[in-house]
Amino acid sequence: MFNIFKIGLTAFLSLVISLVSAQTLVKGVIRDAQSGETLPFATVQVPGTKIGTSADIDGRYSLRIDGDAKAVQFAYIGYITQEQSIQPGVEQTINVKLEVNANMLSEVVITGQKSRYRNRDNPAVQLIRQVIAHKDSNRMGSHPFEEFKQYEKVSLSLSNISDKFRNRKIFKNYQFLFKEQDSTEIGGKTILPAYMTEKLTQVYSRRDPDKKKEIVLAEKNAQFDRQFIDSEGMKDYVNRLYENIDIYDNNILLATNQFLSPIAGTAPTFYKFYHY
Predict the structure, then answer these.
(1) What does R_g of the chain's alpha carbons equal in angstroms?
(2) Which residue in 112, 168, 182, 186 is a FRET match for 131, CA 20 to 30 A apart?
């Protein structure tokens, strides 16, 4: 009896080990073969099966496979589908570069047609009305938890700089600011960069209890000579001037000017919306 039990247990353990060893983990990043940019939400699938997953917003994927699959297929709209061989039962990293499918690219001609604008039977207005109707369910704070990355960039410059102003003594060591810019791109005007900042923030928000947390992932500020530009004072001023904007509010305050939101309740009668 003991021998029979031992044989049965051995067989069971062998089966479990076999099932565990047959599990395959494939992960990696999917990119554009030419630009090297990642392809968000690309499809990863075992050919001939329903086993698959999608890459995240950064083009990263992870697929766990039970069985002895020997290949994985990568697909993305506008790109040539690619198949890669895999080794069953092994954790492996496969980074993929997809080529653009030139056969799917065709010439598109856009022609304008003058017609009288109207709200009635206008698909663009109908779409905006749907957005307005669902504002409460889509705006920040409508979900128990929210998480996102926020990127901010602010650049301020002085324009219409005269030669007399540019040749002042305090700008003696900063003439490169005037010489290396292409003034033709800004209508022949010379500008002087006065303030530049970039910031990437990870934001976490919870509705009940109401709490918000922001973690600065990266921040870069252009530092100019303190003799003529107070960078810290400029930063405080800009922060007050450009506060966070909630597009779901009916009125938006931007740089001391108040605007009607394009998705305010009365927006369809105030703005013109077009579809192409």
Answers:
(1) 29
(2) 112
